[in-house]
Amino acid sequence: MPQINDLLNTLLTVDGIQAAALIGSDGFVINQQSSNPDIDMETVGAIVIGGLQSSESIGSELNVGKVEQNMVEYDNGILLSKISSDGATILTVVADQTTMLGNIRYQVSKLMPEIQKQL
Asked: Any idea what the CATH number is for the domain that residue 36 is in?
């Protein structure tokens, strides 16, 4: 059975994905892999939690349920975060603008159950 490191490295083989991290619900990075040394996933992890809390507030106000996935597109990149089914971890991917969004979503959805088995 592949380890979390191996699974995160699998994401880095997808064209355009620069970093992947498994983040705890407290914002601390459990594990990370990156091909871009300029990305500080510890800082990203802390900020992702704040963004997800804001999204949860919006979901609550609209009465549409809990956040499952959050994606933000920027001028030069994409940040996608998928929350585990138990809400204990978040798989976050940083990608450049050339990456196909559908492929990121597919790869993250495919790997999340495997990652959860490792926890």
From this structure: 3.30.450.30
